[in-house]
Amino acid sequence: MHGSAFQDVARGQSDEVTFGKIYDRRVILRLLPYVIPYKKLALIATVAMLVYTASQVSIPFMIKLGIDDYIETKDFPGLTVLFAIFISVACTNWVANYVQQLYMEKVGQGVLYDLRRTMFAHLQKLSLSYYDKTEVGRIMSRVQGDVWQLQEFMNVVIMTLADLLSLAGIIIVLLIMNLKLGLITMAVLPVLIIIMAFWQPFAVKAFLRVRRAISIVNGALNENITGVRVVQAMNRQTRNLEQFDEKNTEHLESNLVASKLSSGLIPVVDILTAVAIGLAIIFGTQLVSVSALEVGVLVAFIMYVQRFFDPIRNLTMQYTQLQRSMASGARIFELLNVQPDLVDTTDASELPRLKGAVQLKNLSFSYAAASRDVQTLDRETGEERNGHQTNGNLPQPQDVLKNLNLEINAGETVAIVGPTGAGKTTLVSLISRFYDVPRDRGAILVDGIDIRDVTRESLAGQMSMVLQEPFLFSGTVSENIKYNSLEVSDEQMFEAAKAVGAHDFIVQMEDGYDTYLAERGVNVSLGQRQLISFARAIVADPRILILDEATANIDSYTEMLIQRALQKLLQDRTAIVIAHRLSTIRGADKIVVLNLGEIMEVGTHDELMESDGMYAHLYHMNYASIEAPEPASANGVSSGDGD
Prior knowledge:
The structure is a single chain. By secondary structure, the chain is α/β, with parallel strands linked by helices. 58% of the residues lie in helices and 10% in strands. The protein has helices spanning 3-7, 25-35, 39-71, 76-125, 128-132, 136-177, 179-185, 189-226, 228-233, 237-289, 295-337, 367-370, 424-431, 456-460, 477-481, 490-499, 503-507, 526-538, 556-569, 605-611, 614-623; strands at residues 358-365, 375-377, 384-386, 401-408, 413-417, 443-446, 449-450, 463-467, 475-476, 516-517, 544-548, 574-578, 590-595, 598-603. The strands form 4 sheets. The protein has a 6-stranded mixed sheet with strand order 8-11-12-5-13-14, with helices on both faces. A 4-stranded antiparallel sheet has the order 4-1-6-7. It starts with a helix and ends in a 20-residue tail after the last helix.
């Protein structure tokens, strides 16, 4: 592999391309619940497979009967009956094969559907801490590639069973028809076993190299498509093509090597088949000449020998497929074993209608400490282990927030300011309960109720958040605004859009509120996306509104309109605003200055300017020259830095 291609194998991708055990009991046991709902279909497929295998094995024997019992005795009426039976068996063979393939596909697709649905539901439940440390590409690989590999496992199992039964049936029939000739024709089997044992390690390496190569190619393709704006802005097309050619060349070469190995096996098997047939003819003819063997038996022997090596060739190829499937199954169930570190307690209650008071009591927080409870299943021992602790000598996690105490009264607008890394976004993430604060590290109360003692759904139902980077989903404008408020009427939706200044541009779009938005809303401007996200946040009538750099991507005029609209919208609501442009928060009821996770100052704009502390320093150094329209109240503050 080229050196640059090696370097482009992302960390963590190595487990995407490994081969597992040929049989992993834990994977099989975990897979059974997904197969059980389709047990009737699987049983039909298994019976069809048995019928198919039996018909395959019986055909040469019927030819033997036709030659020895009817042709040589000139029993043509009997031969006619045998011919009819032969045609019936051939038709049965075709029908059984069709039923087997059809019903196994139904089982496989059903398992595939259920498994993907389970994984999607599980991923929706996992906490943000999991996504903080897990690459999106790896998650997609689980849901798409690994599930597909596991679906293939169902088909391979049936095919492997059919080949094993066919192989066993052929051997039994050969030995029953003539033990001596059967042993002679199978004399080449040890040679084939030695060749297979020599070929298998090279084949595994070759297939592994192919999967690594395609993983690298897909990664490079994804990266360059996602970052196409940067690529074109930096005029990197030529250089990127050169790098992609290196990766693509490695993919080509690895596939050619794998093809050579696969293709090289077929002539070897064909040669051994020819040798076995030759032995059967030479020794069988001698036995026929001395009347120790019937002609029909010799013909059947030759036909069985031809069929004998096909299952062996198939089993060799299926061996690697089973290994890949077991590895995929282990990775899938490893993901499903990950438990969310944010779960409602068993006695969690529904949060009543909020007034909006928020209190921080001795609050400290560390991301590493908060996610230490995530448990996964050890792939080797099958026992639960901590997902982060690898030994007892890990350094203590550093706190992002340190012993915060703060009271936000209902209906107040509070601005959180501070330099990058101060802990502002972490604070609002905890208030939104994206992460749980350990019981011994303080508490967050809303209306005097610990948010850990209520269901997160009831908490989220009374909060809304607008982020710096607006995320819109594929669907209509209406579907995006009503994303989690389907019960809202169109009139309420219109009012919310008008309140944030989005209504006018929406109705001017081709289909108005029914205009379809592409993925991430890329067919509308960034400012329009943000306005739609504002409408989505307020249409649910939240008691607490959090703005995290929510107006950073909006022009000054639109920001002014939103500030004026929020003056009305935030009446009787609590607003927590991460503020970056300090010139826009002069009217805030309370300004909280954070630095390195600690509260440095709390007060109004005038009080903090008079005290000449950190806030005044930040204001003079960074924002005094930026004069934004001064709102009449604090409800129009802008967003922050995004810790």
